[in-house]
């Protein structure tokens, strides 16, 4: 029996008793998941229940909110598993003592080393590529710089033609953190300033960004790949194409959605079993509905995104994205990116 819980957004962060937030009369499931994924998890959890007999309930919120809630609840938390949508946030949750180490040969086998914590406190479960998208009626992909595609959007030829995501999005912040990690702060600052000098149009979500390109409001932009996959699923003639960035350089910037066992969990073995299942038998169930790439190299991506073709990716450095987040925010602010 798995049921989604109410949205957390409006609730004050209160320490609750073990079953407090379930509302007393509700029967408690075996596992409680705090999830920042705003995508459907029910099918995957139902399949897990069918295979293992363990029931799962989940609570949605955003990464920051849920981490604050875990910290406030401490050892009294009802949560067993924390799922985030950003590598930096996984690092952050571990750094703040909210995740218990998993000693898991299963995860070591299923998840590439850069997509999991060396100390076993979290593992990536789904990969999302933040790459360049363009209007094929306005842009010949040969015009894009294959070596450093992100930085080259600062070339004056793109003036007034680029759309990007707003400065408050973790997607933007982790991309800029990766630029700082790669090129140093000074160069990252120059890159962001060159986008601003090109009159970048800043959008509040990736769907709006893609729709703007489709409508001719921008020629080129940066988006997570799965939003484009969603648009193409609805309308195969949607007028935006994907370009795998920096294939002759450092590779595409990717981020992960991943999970760890909550430090205060009263069922850490079952919680670890869920994380392991999501990385193995449950991989396709977990990633396919949202058109994400499996982290497990033995699992094939679903058809639509497989059609985007193979790509080289930058290694994910969760510690860098997490520890450079504040600097990334400063770089964006100082560049006047908004
Ligand atoms: Fe997203």
Automatic annotation (TrEMBL):
<keyword id="KW-0406">Ion transport</keyword>
<dbReference type="InterPro" id="IPR026045">
    <property type="entry name" value="Ferric-bd"/>
</dbReference>
<feature type="signal peptide">
    <location>
        <begin position="1"/>
        <end position="20"/>
    </location>
</feature>
<dbReference type="Pfam" id="PF13343">
    <property type="entry name" value="SBP_bac_6"/>
</dbReference>
<keyword id="KW-0408">Iron</keyword>
<protein>
    <submittedName>
        <fullName>Extracellular solute-binding protein</fullName>
    </submittedName>
</protein>
<keyword id="KW-0813">Transport</keyword>
<comment type="similarity">
    <text>Belongs to the bacterial solute-binding protein 1 family.</text>
</comment>
<keyword id="KW-0732">Signal</keyword>
<keyword id="KW-0410">Iron transport</keyword>
